[in-house]
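Justification of resources, computational component.

The compute hours requested in this renewal are based largely on the per-chain cost of generating structure records like the one below. Each record pairs the submitted sequence with a full C-alpha cell output. That output is archived, and it is also reused by downstream analysis tasks.
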Amino acid sequence: MGISMTQEVLFRGALLPLFGINWQSVVATASIFGILHLGSGRKYSFAVWATFVGIMYGYATILSSTVVVPMAAHAVNNLVGGIIWRYTSNSSK
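The structure output for this chain reads:
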C-alpha cells in the first residue's frame, strides 16, 4: 500500500469517523494532515496546501461514503506533483 493510500486510511478512514462525519471533523483531520506535512524541510505554505487538500479529501469521503475516492485523488495529486517536479527541476539544470 502506497503512502497516499496509508494516509487516507488513517485520516479519512479512521480519524474522520472517530471524530464524527461532519464539517468540524473534516477541518480537524485536515489540519492535523497539514501540520504533519511540515517535516523534511517543507515550508508552511506546503502545510497550508496540504490542509486545503485534506479538506477536499474529507469532503470527497463524505460525498462518496468511501475512502477509495480520496485515495485515488491523493494518488493522482502526488503523481501530477511528482511529474511537474521532475520536469521543472531537470529544466533548471
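The first helix runs from residue 3 to 19. The mean pLDDT is 91.
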